[in-house]
Hints:
By secondary structure, the chain is an alpha/beta fold. Helix content is 36%, strand content 19%. Helix 4 packs across helix 8 and helix 6 packs across helix 7. The mean pLDDT is 94.
Amino acid sequence: MAESIIGPTSHYFYSQRLKLHYVDWGNPDKPLMILVHGGRDHSRNWDWTALELRKHYHVIAPDLRGHGDSDWAVGGSYAMVDYVLDLAQLMSAMGNQPVTLIGHSLGGGIVLQYTGVFPKTVGKVVSIEGLGPPPSMIRNVPAHERMSHWIGEMQTLSRRKVREYATLDEALARMREANPHLSVEQARHLTIHGVRRNENGTFSWKFDNYVRATSPYLFNLNDAKEIWGRIACPTLLIRGAESWTGDWEKDGRTSAFKGAEIVTIQKAGHWVHHDQLGEFLDVVKKFLGI
């Protein structure tokens, strides 16, 4: 019982002069596994997954730049290339040993990009809801309009104040509003690790508001497919049947992968590993052969 409730230890590494945080679930003699969270999330969202998989792996989970207990980027610019670099730096800090990668949403995109760029370093990769927006959501807007919109968005964010919640319960209610699939227990755990207490006694989310900004450069599906096509290891793509991200097979996004296993989990939205934890773990453990 005690072993099941002992949490991870905190550690730090550096990337582009930022001090970035990760948690380590122990068992350093076992094969390395890195869990990468999504946007406006944090490393401790993986706790339920890590508790199960640490029996077989040395599990670590970073806080992305601008998230959790990691530094915020000076200038407030957050791009996929920076996140992939940060993962490469974490790999270097861990000794560049062979790794199993699991990522969700933005993190799912990061682990696929990393695996395609450095295919020899990854033994297996799992991406949950990580193929980006469906083609129907990508509007072909002229470049100057996209740049103008982005500048306006950044200027708006510079004036935006951090939202304060009077109590943890207020923040918890917002968490459950964002994902109605969460149980009260799940939402409370995610909220406790996802907020910081302000000097005036209120609570605010840990992530930098600038991570909300959308890039002026369109999601380049052609570049993504070229990178995905270089992935040489076994690949598992998981989506929730009730997610906004669309059906990858129908819109052709999965055509770039070489024999990837594709699983759709019913009664799950975007946060599949929270919405249907048991089924998610069954699918992942079968894929990993444990």
